[in-house]
Amino acid sequence: MVSSLSEWFWNERLWFPEGLGWADLEDKDGRVYAKASDLWVVLPIALAFLVIRQIFERLVATPLAAVMGVKEKVRLTVSHNPTLESFYCTTTKNPSQSSIDSLCKQTGCSERQVQRWFRRRRNQDRPSLLKKFKEASWRFTFYLLAFIAGLAALIDKPWLYDFKEMWQGFPILTLLPSQYWYYMIELGFYVSLVFSVASDVKRKDFKEQMVHHMATIFLISFSWCVNYIRAGTLIMLLHDSSDYLLEVQPITGELGRQHNMIIISLP
């Protein structure tokens, strides 16, 4: 069944105009074409991004945060209470009044003590401003560098100025080294975001964010497999040109919140 499905999926009639087939995309005479098997290189690239990110956050983002006045806020830790901790992890982080009354009876604590415990416990789970700043700085840096690199790769290409050139000779389009690395680096970055989602700050739009990452990975991979290389690089360049600007707001937002907290704390 798997072989039959694979044979149907890769049927030349689905992918090529009449008279052309997979044999026409075989590397020969110095001409190289995109292949689905090339995508395996994305995995080591994604792992490399995870390592580079850790180095960047430690050696660049953290000192930059210190210069800009973004500091780690010291939070009070809660006392160890197995009953309250179990309720917090398995039931809810915001207990109702009836639940608080029940917990008071179970633990022997006053209502105010239980409320204070849950408030401090929630604060412990909140990501710090420094963590948010470092994550936004990493994404800003990548998108900015990716935009610059993509612009350098496409600045002398005719399809950047004339969209008709995108499909000239399709699907027999030779793959250029700059296109290969632009694709692999972009795809590797989004795969690394999926890998790091467990340790990143969980945003309110977490589900939408995951759908966005998965859809981006699918679309980049699909455009590679069907040789939409020229159109794909233009679309990635367009997105990179705005994505780094979108990351400016989280950076300045965390900085603004930090300074507001400092002002509020002044006598």
From TrEMBL:
Pathway: Lipid metabolism; sphingolipid metabolism; Sphingolipid metabolism. The chain crosses the membrane at residues 39-56, 140-160, 180-198, 210-229. It catalyses: sphinganine + octadecanoyl-CoA = N-(octadecanoyl)-sphinganine + CoA + H(+). GO terms for biological process: ceramide biosynthetic process. Coiled coil: none annotated. It holds the Pfam family TRAM_LAG1_CLN8. Residues 69-129 bind DNA. It is a multi-pass membrane protein. SUPFAM superfamilies: Homeodomain-like. InterPro entries: HD, Homeodomain-like_sf, Lag1/Lac1-like, TLC-dom. The keyword Nucleus applies. This is LAG1 homolog, ceramide synthase 2. It comes from Salmo salar. The gene is LASS2.
